[in-house]
Specification:
Blueprint: E1 9-12, H1 19-35, E2 40-45, H2 51-63, E3 68-72, H3 78-87, E4 92-96, E5 105-112, H4 120-133, E6 144-146, H5 149-159, H6 162-167, E7 170-175, H7 184-188, E8 194-198, H8 221-230, E9 234-238, E10 245-248, E11 254-255, H9 257-271, E12 278-282, H10 287-296, E13 300-303, H11 307-316, E14 319-323, E15 329-331, H12 340-354, H13 358-369, E16 373-379, H14 383-386, H15 388-394, E17 399-400, E18 403-409, E19 414-418, E20 423-428, E21 435-441, H16 444-460
Parallel strand pairs: 2-3, 2-4, 3-6, 7-8, 7-9, 12-13, 12-14
Antiparallel strand pairs: 1-5, 4-5, 9-10, 10-11, 14-15, 16-21, 17-18, 18-19, 19-20, 20-21
């Protein structure tokens, strides 16, 4: 059965993700678009195995259903497709990508006309249409090719205070992780004093045998080493389709995604002077965001994991900034979708505006809002172990190591929050066959202890 998860439909190439299944999804999507009166669609693709061929297949299928289709003339990161969908006035955008998944996967992401991830109600319509198109002959039509990257790069540059980059030099190491942001950070900073070195900037559909996930520290060891070797000011990594970002400081130390979220929010409000709207975070995000919002007088809304849940909020509320634990952040008024390139450059812009190193900015963050150390563990679990989540929901612990439980959230999995703001979250992944356990406390040793306790709870409960 073909199902859309927290961010599109994904499957193992030649097993679930086949041309036959892609035909069903594209035709079902085309029917939903046609019934809704759509006229114009844009299609992009990443650098995974067969992505370009899959992209052309989808483009000619939907074009054959009477809809005008523009296909990216080259590989393009997901935020480039989102940008073109919104500002090019397309009814939908489609990206052939499996994002941060291993190389054996590919996938199909959908963007609505506002540029954000397709809402659940829309992807459900596609799922419901699939049985109706099975067995039908695939329509084939003509599409046009278009440059999606140049307008996107221009859009990113317009969000930056480029005068800072022209006046002050900065040394950056960029790791696109063999993905679709390769070469684009250089293009975004053309004409500035930035000195940029790139690693893993060529096509490798197996991503060097690693997970192209920049918020997992062991995946960016080479970036850490390169920053140290070159004495660079910052290292920036992007996932396979370029919508997520990972940061390494000037010492070659990994900065976890919760800290990056907090730094970005402070930069947007204090340095860029933006305050109009609420802040949205997924339930797997940390307590620093809560503390910042309380101090700065910003309203905060917490939603289930998956950026599409923030996208759904955008339709109902005025949202200033949104972020998630997995390294995806968005300046909503500009683009209601994650943009790894822009967010990485916002961290550099913050450095230049404040004339501080990344480590100094983190130190000041901790001094003002308290320390926070976060860690996540992904567990392969049995169906029986997955069911233990219900037992935790029904009978949650009342304390841990002398800390009383002050709140329990069940909007996505089970999040147990303790009296000092420390927390642990249990939830099954919506994109991978694993169970995730997340934890955050004021010091790294306690975080590991809490995480170990959580794993034991799942395995032995």
């Amino acid at each position: 059965m073909i199902k859309f998860g927290t961010d599109g439909w994904r499957g193992v190439i030649s097993k679930e993700f086949t041309f036959e299944n892609l035909k069903k999804v594209a035709m079902a999507h085309g029917e939903v678009l046609r019934k809704g009166g759509a006229e114009k669609v844009v299609v992009g693709y990443d650098l995974r195995f067969l992505s370009e061929e899959y992209g052309k297949f989808v483009a000619e299928t939907i074009a054959g259903m009477g809809i005008d289709v523009d296909l990216s003339e080259n590989f393009s990161p997901t935020p480039a497709v989102s940008y073109n969908t919104k500002y090019g006035n397309y009814d939908n955008g489609i990206v052939i990508t499996a994002s941060h998944n291993y190389g054996k996967y590919n996938g199909y992401k959908v963007k609505e006309s506002f540029g954000g991830a397709a809402r659940t109600e829309f992807t459900r319509k596609i799922e419901e249409e699939i049985p109706r198109v099975e067995g039908k002959e695939r329509p084939v039509g003509k599409f046009k090719e278009k440059d999606l990257v140049s307008p996107y790069i221009q859009g990113v540059r317009e969000q930056l205070e480029l005068s800072l980059f022209r006046e002050k030099s900065v040394k950056i190491v960029h790791d696109p992780m063999y993905g679709a942001q390769q070469g684009l950070l250089v293009r975004a900073l053309l004409g500035t004093k930035s000195e940029i070195s790139e690693i893993h900037s060529y096509r490798d559909p197996l991503f060097g045998g690693k997970h192209p996930e920049p918020v997992v520290e062991e995946n960016i060891t080479a970036l850490k080493e390169k920053v140290r070797a070159l004495k660079a000011d910052i290292g920036i990594a992007h996932d396979g389709d370029g919508d997520r970002v990972g940061i390494v400081d000037e010492r070659g130390e990994f900065i976890n995604s919760q800290i990056v979220f907090a730094l970005l929010l402070l930069h947007i409000v204090r340095n860029k002077g933006m305050r109009d709207g609420i802040v949205a975070k997924t339930v797997s995000s940390g307590y620093l965001i809560n503390r910042i919002c309380r101090k700065l007088g910003l309203e905060l809304v917490e939603v289930p994991v998956g950026f599409k849940n923030i996208s759904e909020l955008v339709v109902k509320e005025k949202v200033l900034f949104g972020g998630e634990e997995s390294g995806g952040y968005a300046l909503i008024d500009y683009l209601p979708e994650r943009d790894g390139l822009l967010m990485g450059l916002f961290i550099v812009e913050k450095m230049l505006a404040e004339e501080k190193s990344v480590s100094q900015m983190v130190e000041e963050l901790f001094k003002e809002f308290g320390t926070a150390y976060y860690k996540r563990m992904d567990l392969p679990v049995t169906e029986e172990e997955k069911r233990k989540l219900e037992k935790i929901k029904e009978n949650p612990p009342k304390d841990w190591e002398g800390l009383k439980v002050k709140e329990i959230l069940t909007i996505d999995g089970v999040k147990i929050i303790f009296e000092n703001d420390s927390w642990i979250l249990f939830r099954p992944s919506g994109t991978e066959p694993v169970f995730r356990v997340y934890a955050e406390t004021p010091d790294p040793k306690t975080t590991q202890m809490l995480l170990n306790w959580g794993v034991k709870l799942i395995k032995e409960n």
